[in-house]
Amino acid sequence: MNRRTFLFQSTALAAGAMIFPTACARNSNSKSTDMMAPGLQVYTIREALAEDFQGSMQRIADLGYVNIELFAYGDGQYFGNSIPEVKTMMSDMGLQVKSSHVATGWTSPDAVGTMTNNWEQTVQDAAELGQDYIVLAYLTEEERQSMDDYKKVAELLNSCGETAKNAGLQMAYHNHAFEFETMDDQVPYDLLLSECDEDLVKFELDLYWTRRAGVDPIAYFEKHSGRFPLWHVKDMAAGEDQFFAAVGEGVIDWENMFSHAETAGLDYYFVEQDATRSGEPFKEIEKSIGYLENIL
Asked: What's the mean pLDDT when you consider all of the chain?
């Protein structure tokens, strides 16, 4: 993957130790018992990955992370590494790829490896890596101009979810804050929950963006129990700018949040920090894993 492609996909996609009995029972035939081990969405260290993919992944493993969510898939590669190469690296380091982020492809039709361009191969590659989930990461502004657009997104998720299911994977949708902004007297996120098939499409709730939208995630867990098997564990700093923070250094009550994991249907969580004030993302994710290991 060249730098131009990486930067484009990065922009487009940017945008615990306990095991719960019901989650274990639900996934005993398809998922290993490390489903609640520390996870990381590697977008957090995107610049380091572009410089040294293998070395950066080793640093993640050395910090104690186990489960990985990838991004920037393109034409059978991650950052210039083939799927067999990535698979070997992960195995050697004791890392497990549980999920990956993808785009619709509607605004980047030439990009190979999206939900509308070579989706079958994208799913096959995800299955080869041993993933359980594949996630629509972000909707560009052009893709979300109306509620009809969101209905088209739901249709695409259902269709792609069927392909994923046939390969043994689960399709999911990852939110930002804009999905909770009322449009035509409706909440787009609620429409997605309504229009998406409960079996074919699950939801990865980004707890930072949900909080930033002024929404209570626990209320969603209780209303739509079992539909949130993936979380982005991302903290919010105190202050008007609501900047990103290392987990445990912000305003989100994580102990309370994780106490509702069973209701949510949580399988895996992934630490993520979109940006850092320090400019040292590895130090930030080290603080995050340290905090989570203390409370879980």
From this structure: 91
CATH number at residue 59: 3.20.20.150
User: For the segment 208-255, what is each residue's pLDDT rounded down to a tens digit?
Assistant: 999 999 999 999 999 999 999 999 999 999 999 999 999 999 999 999
Specify whether the CB–CB gap between 237 and 251 falls below 8 A.
yes
Range of the structural domain that residue 180 is part of: 3-295
DSSP string, 160-195: HHHHHHHTT-EEEEE--SGGGS-BTTB-HHHHHHHH
- Give dist(CA 35, CA 33) in Å, integer: 5
Stated as kind and residue range, the H or E segment containing 51 is helix 46-51
- What is the number of structural domains in the chain? 1
Tokens of 1: 């993957």
Side chain identity at 192, as an amino acid letter? L
- Which residue, among 232, 249, 241, has the nearest Cα to 284 in the 3D structure? 249
CA distance linking residue 76 with residue 112, whole number of Å: 8
Phi and psi at 45, nearest 5°, equal -115, 35
Q: For 252-271, what is the mean pLDDT? A: 97
Read off the tokens for 29. 């035939």
For residues 228 and 191, is the Cβ–Cβ distance under 8 A?
A: no
